[in-house]
Amino acid sequence: MAEHRAERISELIKEEFGSILRKDLKDPRIGFVSVTAVEVSNDYSHVKIFVSILGDETSKRSAMEGLESAKGFIRTELGKRIRLRHTPEVHIIADDSIERGSRIIELIEELKRSEKGEKPS
């Protein structure tokens, strides 16, 4: 039962955080950011929000700085939108798994192309 509640809360936080990113944050440092996952602690006191940021290393670092500076605002907004006894402490974590997956696919495709080129027809 508690596991199901944690999943519902995680999904709700993911939706609301995405909405806050799109509509409410006006920081120019925060470019194209998408939420990849949300994990809520067992006691609902902490939430880890994993984000993927599109761009080079400088823009990623800048976006993370913008998100870090907006954490108080984000937590306040989540508290208003999600009815919990206590608003969880927000931890925003950069997630590069999408980029790593994309890079692995590129490498596999390169390998396939090179194998086709090495075999005589």
What's the gist of this structure?
The chain has four helices and three strands.
What does this structure look like?
The protein has 121 residues and is an alpha+beta fold. It has a single domain, classed as GMP Synthetase, Chain A, domain 3 (2-Layer Sandwich), CATH 3.30.300. It is built from 4 helices and 3 strands, in the order H-E-E-H-H-E-H. Strand 1 and strand 2 form a beta hairpin. Helix 1 crosses helix 3 (71-81). The longest helix has 23 residues, at 2-24. One of its GO terms (cellular component) is cytosol. Its main location: cytoplasm. GO terms for molecular function: ribosomal small subunit binding. It comes from Hydrogenispora ethanolica.
Features:
121 residues, alpha+beta, GMP Synthetase, Chain A, domain 3, three-stranded mixed sheet, 4 helices, 3 strands, flat, ribosome biogenesis
